[in-house]
Amino acid sequence: METLFVVNAGSSSLKFRLFERRSDGLHVCLRGQLSGIGSAEPAFEAADHEGGELVRRALAPAQAHDAAQAQSILGEWLHDHLGAPPSAVAHRVVHGGPDIGEARLIDEALLAQLEQLVPLAPLHQPAALAVIRTVQRMAPGVPQIACFDTAFHRSHPPVADRFALPRRFYAEGVRRYGFHGLSYEYIASQLRTHWPALAAGRVAAAHLGAGASVCGLVDGRSVSSSMGFSALDGIPMATRPGQLDPGVVLWMLDRGMNAREIEALLYKQSGLAGLSGTSGDMRELIGNDSADARLALDYFALYTAQALAALGTAMGGLDALVFTAGIGEHAAPVRASICAHLAWLGVRLDAARNVAHASRISSDDSAIEVRVIPTNEEEVIARHAHEVLEARAWT
Ligand SMILES: Nc1ncnc2c1ncn2[C@@H]1O[C@H](COP(=O)(O)OP(=O)(O)O)[C@@H](O)[C@H]1O
Ligand SMILES: CC(=O)OP(=O)(O)O
Ligand SMILES: [Mg+2]
After folding, report:
1. Are residues 348 and 207 in the same domain?
2. Ligand 2 site, residue 209, Cβ cutoff 6 A
3. Judgement on whether residues 188 and 290 belong to the same structural domain of the protein
4. Residue 377 has pLDDT above 90, yes or no
5. Are residues 121 and 235 in the same domain?
6. Do 190 and 330 belong together in one domain?
7. Which of 74, 313, 335, 360 is the 20 to 30 Å CA partner of 307?
8. Where is 301: in which H helix or E strand?
């Protein structure tokens, strides 16, 4: 029986799923994640196809300080728990550059292309490439497929693809790529299946995880996204600032900071972590009464709400809001604060539905429907990988 192993290397998590190929398609037989990478409370959990617990353990912060440590913990566990290497491995790769609009079978030429994009996604691209190289070493000959965060946004209109810079920069690849595309693709497919009227309308989706962005979906296609050239722009994140006046970066350069120092500051020390001075993890901030933690939460809510409202302008109106990813799915007080900023648009939450994480959390009289839709990037990756593998009979 053929199997497909799916890896989603995020900034604070390493998510994975093992699928079996049966005559009617792929079926999940194992799922899990190493979460809280770089936080005070990393954890590792995995479950079988029925949700039966295979492992659930807290890790010391020093054990999962970065992606490399997380990968070696997962690698050791898989070594003990997978009977045989999978028939194929599929990956979330954050940056695919300007031309790639679909999943690709990985070969050396593609890897060289993806390595060139490391400076555009230094927090994510190296981690995904490291897993790909490890699989090449440990299981040579096993086909690997790359699925890209940027691919779904290739449908952007030109105004959502350009920066107001001289044209030559666009030709050199300085574009608004957009990220979290696998997640938005999943949201669009869930809308089509369960809420076709919304799917055909104008939806502002908020992927709020350790990395966070918003995306405007019209008829299920991405028309505008808050993330652009790199995964730094847009709304505030766990350790990234979101929108920042480029004059600040010039000021830092003039003060003698070099590019690598500024990179570390912007990817690892800013955002909620920078504002609060304690943590970028939303769970820790919600439980923290300090004025700095409150400021971080207020900043996150205000700028996320502004970005969602701006999507309404890009789409010529707003029929629904969708919250997804770690914060979007689980942090009811954050959803409430964001929606409170959108009350002027007629957004009304039902407090009880919101606290219960119901699928529809807006009240019956809300002018705009508000939904929580758990994302599933791994399923989208599996879907694309399956197509690539079927086309070549899995060998
Ligand atoms: N119950 C919760 N309440 C508030 N925030 C949560 C909760 N569970 C997870 N989160 C937040 O979700 C974030 C992780 O989201 P996730 O989508 O898994 O991130 P990523 O894929 O970017 O690594 C964490 O930073 C954490 O703050
Ligand atoms: C693109 C990005 O920021 O991803 P993540 O949310 O997984 O960090
Ligand atoms: Mg993620």
Report:
1. yes
2. yes
3. yes
4. yes
5. no
6. yes
7. 360
8. helix 291-315
DSSP 361: -
- Residue in the structure block whose two tokens are 């300090």: 290
Same domain for 191 and 144, yes or no, is no
Condensed to tens digits (0 to 9), the pLDDT of residues 315-326 reads 999 999 999 999
Burial code of 161-173, b = ≥16 C-beta within 10 A, e = fewer? bbeeeeeeebeee
Q: 155 pLDDT exceeds 90?
A: no
Quickly state the pLDDT bin for 82 (edges 50, 70, 90).
confident
The pLDDT of residue 83: 82
Dist. CA 376 → ligand 1 center (Å):
14
Q: Decide: pTM greater than 0.90.
A: yes
Residue 298 lies in a domain: yes
Of 207, 208, 281, 179, the residue nearest 239 (C-alpha): 281
Pocket test residue of 37, 45, 327, 372 for ligand 1, highest count of atoms within 8 A of CB: 327
Give the mean model confidence (pLDDT) for residues 241-263.
98
Domain assignment of residue 385, yes or no: no
Q: Which residues are catalytic?
A: 149
Residues 185 and 335: their CA atoms lie apart, in Å, by 21
The answer to whether position 125 is within a domain reads yes
How remote is the CA of residue 327 from the centroid of ligand 1, in Å? Answer: 5
User: For the segment 265-310, what is each residue's pLDDT rounded down to a tens digit?
Assistant: 999 999 999 999 999 999 999 999 999 999 999 999 999 999 999 9
pLDDT for 236 beyond 90: yes
Number of domains in the chain: 2
Q: Rounded to an integer, what distance in angstroms lies between the CA atom of residue 94 and that of residue 123?
A: 10
Range 184-205 average pLDDT: 98
Domain match, 219 and 297 both: yes
Verify that 150 and 185 share a domain, yes or no.
Answer: no
Here the CATH number for the domain that contains residue 22 is 3.30.420.40
The closest residue, in CA terms, to atom 5 on ligand 2 is: 211
Ligand 2 neighbour 211 (Cβ under 6 A) = yes
- Going by their DSSP bridges, the two strands 3-9 and 14-22 should be labelled as antiparallel
For residue 175, being part of any structural domain is answered with no
Residues in the chain: 395
Which residue in 149, 289, 294, 308 sits closest to 230, CA to CA? 149
Residue ranges making up the domain that contains 252: 181-372
180 in ligand 2 pocket by Cβ < 6 Å?
yes
CA atoms within 13 A on the CB side of 54: 18
